[in-house]
Amino acid sequence: MRVSSDLPTDAYRVTGAEDRLILEADRPLGLIAACGQVLRGSKFTKDGMVPTAHRGLTVPDCPSRGVYMANHFHNYYQMASIEEIEHYLEELSLWGLNTMHFFIPEINLPSRDHPDTIRHIERSVEVMKMAKALGWSVSTNVFVNQTFVNFPQDIASTPVPDPLVRHGNSGNIVCLSKPGGQEWMDADNRFYLSKLKELGVTLDAVRAWPYDEGGCGCEQCWPWGSNGYIRGAKRAFEIAREYFPNVKRELSTWTFDMPPVGEWEGLAESLKNEKWCDVILADSHEDFPRWPLEHGVPGGLPMISFPEISMWNLYPWGGYGATLYPFRLERLWKQTQGMLYGASIYSEGITEDLNKVAIAAFCEDWDNDCADVLRQYARYEIGCEREDDFVRLIRNIESQLTEKSPALADDTYALAKEIDTALPEWGRTGWRWRLIYLRALLDVSRVRDEDLNNSEICRKAMEEIVEICHCLKEDAHQDPYHERVCPPLKITE
């Protein structure tokens, strides 16, 4: 393996004969991705390794291949050890990811200077520094109008109009048009950013977020995305550059114009003469937003997507084991073909690991086929030689999100048991396969709308998920949001 400065950023090259492969990349992180390519393309038997036949230069189609590790609700990212998260980052690097977004769970932290807030910032810094050490870019949120639990109620926001129930009127939200509102948010940003700088983090980007949490429906702020949000995001970006002068400014447009109120048009107009941000982030709960596809990205800026891989059509998120809908993600990705600079995958933990990998593969090569990616995953991550059966298993599980079929659930669980018996010990007992297997098991009862707590086998399955994902640990029972990311397991005394 060697670093070659003549290669494009994050490109890698595989050359050599069967008995001696040569891996080259422009930096160590690219070499890790090259190793992943070689390992996934090779076969491992009791007699040794059959090296991949892949040779040539790989230049990722998307420069930014990231994951937003949502650090809240006492979920996996909040509760796993630093060492476990570091190991997971290394594994994701093998699939070519190179960017991490991380933030503190301000939604249930008391105040800026509360000891819990300081503790969360210090832990976030540890995670960010680990990512930087691997060669990843790191980013975090700035506060636009979301704040901590304890704030003056005389500056509270007005709930946003939400007839489609997409904006999510949740969190601790400030009105920027009320006296003292903007000043309160300025103080939040100065506190947070100064703390990050003091602790030695070098940020590559900061991100402003409009809704869930965020937004204000008062006359002075609405329509939020083309009015109050622009004011608040500009101000937050100004403060961010006081502390990190070269930081990229990412502007999310999550759930803009749902329903249409002129948010996309207003944003585009504001960027005509002033490029006050550097990247547009766009996506939605369902199909990709039509506006940028039909009119172009506001300001002609690079655009990254925000694939939601954790929550679609199944609640609690990850509560039944693996969250699996890679074929849906493939369909949505193809809607944006050729337009994206990259992706920032929304992740609640490790239950959607396979979905993450699918997006990583699409970012590397627009033409990657989902079924082929699943075959690689089966072979490399769990040692499954029955690759086509694995693809069928995932298709079956995904189909239960839109149309429940008890008969199919029974067949799928039977298939999972067949695959299980054929796996090597390391694959059969590893968390990736266990989460998939447990999902197939629990779906037998879930699709029949049965109470999982009335079945001993289902209770044991949920208990195993709790252990793998670090649910119900420490003070999680005091977190009103923890039930969103935890199996529906009733605790008996």
Write up this protein.
This protein is of the alpha/beta class and 493 residues long. β9, α5 and β10 (205-208) form a beta-alpha-beta unit. Helix content is 40%, strand content 12%. It has helices spanning 28-41, 76-79, 82-94, 115-134, 181-198, 228-243, 263-270, 290-295, 326-334, 353-364, 370-382, 387-399, 406-422, 425-429, 431-446, 456-469; strands at residues 2-3, 12-17, 20-25, 43-45, 48-50, 56-58, 64-69, 99-101, 137-141, 205-208, 248-252, 279-282, 303-305, 342-347. It has 3 domains: 2-58, Chitobiase, domain 2, CATH 3.30.379; 64-368, TIM Barrel; 376-485, no CATH class. The strands form 3 sheets. Strands 7-8-9-10-11-12-13-14 form an 8-stranded parallel beta barrel. Strands 1-3-2-6 form a 4-stranded mixed beta sheet.
Task: Summarize the model shown.
With 493 residues, the protein is of the alpha/beta class. Helices cover 40% and strands 12% of the residues. It folds into three domains: 57 residues, 2-Layer Sandwich (Chitobiase, domain 2); 305 residues, TIM Barrel (Alpha-Beta Barrel), CATH 3.20.20.80; 110 residues, no CATH class.
- The portion of residues forming beta strands comes to 5-15%
Q: What name goes with the CATH superfamily of the largest domain?
A: Glycosidases
Uncertain spans: none
Mean pLDDT: 96
Order of helices and strands: EEEHEEEEHHEHEHEHEHEHEHEHHHHHHH
Helix content: 40-55%
Distance between the termini: 56 Å
- Structural class estimated from helices and strands: alpha/beta
* CATH architecture name of the largest domain: Alpha-Beta Barrel
CATH class of the largest domain: Alpha Beta
